[in-house]
Amino acid sequence: MFWFEIIEIEKTQIMKTLKLLSIIFLGAIMFTSCVAEVVIEEDVYIEEPPVRVITLEEVLNAHEIWYVDIERTQGSGEIPFLQKAFTVSFKNGTFFANNNLVGMGDNGNGFGLDVGVYDTHRMRVDINHDIDGVYELVATQLSTNEIEIYDSVTNTSYYLIGYQRSNFDYDRVFYDNIHYFLQEYETWEKVYTSEYGALNEFDNENYLKFFYYGSGENFNSSRDANGMHIDDIFYDYIGHYEVYDIADNFYRKTLTLDYGYLDNEFFELSVINDSKIELFHPNSGTTYEFKGRGHILFKNSEKSKTTQNDTKRIKKADLKIRKLSK
Q1: In whole angstroms, what is the distance from residue 22 CA to residue 11 CA?
Q2: What does the alpha-carbon distance between residue 86 and residue 172 come to, in Å, rounded to a whole number?
Q3: DSSP assignment of 63-112, as one string?
Q4: Of 12, 51, 141, 296, which residue is the least packed, with the fewest Cβ within 10 Å?
Q5: H or E segment at 300?
Q6: Dihedral (Cα; 227, 231, 232, 237), 10-degree rounding
């Protein structure tokens, strides 16, 4: 009996010991789980590169050729040298323009004629044109290849579309503006009449002279003999002419010469080269060729006015003075 009691006492002590160890173990686990790990980090500053502002000079030089989209012009006034230009270019302070269709793509390696100088100041481009003088214009970039040129004096905006010379379609500009091409010679002289075709009144016309397209009586014709000096040609008839596209034939146009009471003459017009055109007369089946005489170089409004280097230096100095005085 005594031995059994000893065993029970030892058993009880063992149980107490195990219970105590369990409490200590569980407490340790709970204590560990309740302790929050505190980590102190220092602020990390990442220095971002500064945003680079593209200058107007870089925008203007990003494209070699700027096509003047004349149909989108807004305002009642005009900037003369933009009004008459098919394209303009800004190159190292020199302002170029393609004012003529004859030689477009070849003149000035595609840039056109040197017609002035320019300078930029923030979003303003100051252009000193050889003939029209100084214009202070605001340039706004509308997209990666389009800018608006605004003249606050006349409240007029022009829109320019940028190209590289390698991807600019000079031929399309040429054929889209054939009516201007006809005006680039003082007169057109008939140099060929086909042997085939019925006799008709136009067989006797030897000279054609074209004026501003869209005005009233804007062409003259003459029956004077071939080889006349341009200034001695007497024009017998005055009328109105119109040029239209031919569907599905980009390189051929229609030309109508309205002689008023003498009725109209209708032709299919094609360009042989920069100085010769072909006129096919459907009513008679006759083909004529006319050669341009007296090419008019549209620097702008004055003919044969050249640009001198000394003049350019003076103009660049003038632009610099204007810029500093602002």
Answers
A1: 16
A2: 11
A3: -SEEEE-GGG-BSSS--HHHHT-SEEEEETTEEEEE--STTTTTGGGGT-
A4: 51
A5: none
A6: 100
- Per-residue pLDDT of the chain in tens (326 residues, 90 and over written 9): 444 444 454 555 655 555 555 555 555 555 555 444 555 556 666 666 666 678 999 999 999 999 999 989 999 899 999 999 999 999 999 999 999 999 999 999 999 999 999 999 999 999 999 999 999 999 999 999 999 999 999 999 999 999 999 999 999 999 988 988 999 999 999 999 999 999 999 999 999 999 875 555 689 999 999 999 999 999 999 889 999 999 989 899 999 999 876 689 999 999 999 999 999 999 999 999 999 999 988 764 444 333 334 444 444 455 554 554 55
Instruction: Report phi then psi at 158, rounded to 5.
Output: -115, 150
Q: What is the helix (H) or strand (E) element at residue 127, kind and residue range?
A: strand 124-129
The span from the CA of 276 to the CA of 288, in Å, is: 11
CA 109/CA 315 separation, integer angstroms: 24
Among candidate residues 127, 123, 122, 124, the one with its CA nearest the CA of residue 91:
127
Going from the C-alpha of 190 to that of each of 60, 204, 205, 206, 266, the distances in angstroms are: 44, 10, 8, 5, 16
